[in-house]
């Protein structure tokens, strides 16, 4: 397999003005007939180029015609996956008849079957597995889709746009025609056929148009879509109010399918969702999952403008739609719930997972310069760091100018396929703020390290901050430029009061510093006393901040900073410092001994009734195994686990009364609702319980058992179960068994059970995971189940990081097994193995050997790319 490069981009030699598709759906073979209204692209420099259409090995060509003439065999050829026609008129209708077998499609790309329905997934390059096409996002076409099927088995037949005709064939099959008036690239095409139930609603747009809203699921799930429907209406309203974006078709549909490679897909007018990201009910869905459903419904809906009306020129520009849309969904969730809580969760995720990606062998810029398989670039970097870039633009421009930039972007590029640079240009043009240097964020990989030192001069009341930035080399990028880094900050007095200061003539308690050089010094004047700096408020840039805070500074920030995010951040740093010491003691085989600072900080937190319980819960949650691994070099997984367990136990024992009291205070009888307020109380209650049971007292265990048995919602029931499992309580096995008994007929709940079971730390963790894969609840064809079990196992320190290498070998076996069946899922499963260079030497060698073993197989492009880059 070879790489393709951004620098080689050329406009398409042909355009497709109209696309007419007919699907004759059948369980054995599906016949697809396409009529493409094509012409040469006047802007192409390749006016004599042959017509090369993308296809796939799974597409069988029956016949091809130009105009009314069937092409003779010598007029065209099928080369690997391409259909090549040497000569064509300037404008013509190309007709292709192809056969496909959706029932044998295990890659879940193109047209496939999930349960008893037909459905599609075309982004990024799935459409070519349906029929021959110019399968690239800059070829935008108006689609008309005819679906022919047996109505008794497929009463619901859907595609993009509006239903315009319905009738019968001579053989009595049903024919439904859909027309989408908005030109779109093939990746936004969708088709669904099945026996589905529907929930309907109506949305009145800001210009008083009625939009029919329909959510389709298998009938046994239709009672779980009310929350998604409400979330959809909130999203539609929010996008009108916040971005001035109104929905454009008269109908908006969502379909839930069980077998889906990722979360959801924004097909025009017909979103298709992984059922795990759509279905929700208090009894079966946890708080986190409710919020996830809301965020993903919003994300896919927001794509209607940021992605569909304005789309990407080529796949290197993926972050144009994804980074912006993630930023939009994050802002939406923040507005629906709590700003600070949402920011802490998003940053925590970024620092754990995206920073790890940016430091590993797959590190790439937000706008990659090359790829072998685009599916591998639906990454945390493109999505989450991409969103951080948009957020920095928001910080640099301010609310109003940002909105003006967004308006200009949508107006200027409506109906076009554009680049990240076009997005920045619109922001620049609308604001008159120069983003020339800022653009380098799109092309430079790696996380900048910003190191800050300071000094205070009592006699002149001046305070100086010196900041440096450095980005370490990443694959293919040895030397790095200085980025434009916005650093939002303020100063606190030693008593914790706001300390206004003057910077470049502006007096304020908060400033945005522009770090644009490798090293820069900023001088603040009129600073009345020696300050503690609160740096990078709200995480104003995706960087690693280094500043030598004393424990006292951190306690001060934690209790007094005006910025809620930085209060959390200080607490997190305090815990990281403590854990780093413990980890080092563990590595050296010393006795672990905990310092009292964190204990004091936590005590103060638990005794302050004025705080937001959600924030208290976030602070009490110790830095995760994964985050501590990201910070470590090399990584000793067992030492990290030991340090975390030790610290948790120490905190639990010292503050047992506080935890017990907190548990009871926040244990309220209410009718379940997924509101920020209720979620906050549940989350603090369950965090307190997780500490309290560490004391091993009967009262704590009894409280947990009672909560498990009497909970009327999944959050409380599953929290109790997880605490029992992770706390290695003696009743954990019984509770797991009873949980499965209770929920065996709810696949989404069973998936949670699979993940928790696979993550259970125990001596024979590997055998246990093997037995889960043989369990009737498991299904290798279903990505959610594979992710649950193998994802859960990846978190299992004793199982996955077993010193004999058996955990790595097992994962490698599963990757090899899935490599051909479902390359996208196989490739995702490689992620934990890509971290081998950072592991301690013995584990590192064992992991590397597994990568080499995988490489010896006949690999899909997806897996090949990740494995070869990892071994480089
Ligand atoms: N755009 C899709 C992701 C498609 C992934 C293809 N491998 C979902 C989203 O980001 O909204
Ligand atoms: Zn998206």
Automatic annotation (TrEMBL):
One of its GO terms (molecular function) is metallopeptidase activity. Its cofactor is Zn(2+). Residues 105-188 form the Aminopeptidase N-like N-terminal domain. GO terms for biological process: proteolysis. Residues 446-547 form the Peptidase M1 alanyl aminopeptidase Ig-like fold domain. Its EC number is 3.4.11.2. InterPro entries: Aminopeptidase_N-like_N, Aminopeptidase_N-like_N_sf, PepN_Ig-like_sf, Peptidase_M1, Peptidase_M1_dom, Peptidase_M1_pepN, Peptidase_M1_pepN_C, Peptidase_M1_pepN_C_sf. The keyword Metal-binding applies. Keywords: Aminopeptidase, Hydrolase, Metal-binding, Metalloprotease, Protease, Zinc. Residues 552-872 form the Peptidase M1 alanyl aminopeptidase C-terminal domain. Belongs to the peptidase M1 family. Aminopeptidase N is involved in the degradation of intracellular peptides generated by protein breakdown during normal growth as well as in response to nutrient starvation. This is Aminopeptidase N. The lineage of its organism: Bacteria, Pseudomonadati, Pseudomonadota, Gammaproteobacteria, Oceanospirillales. The gene is pepN.
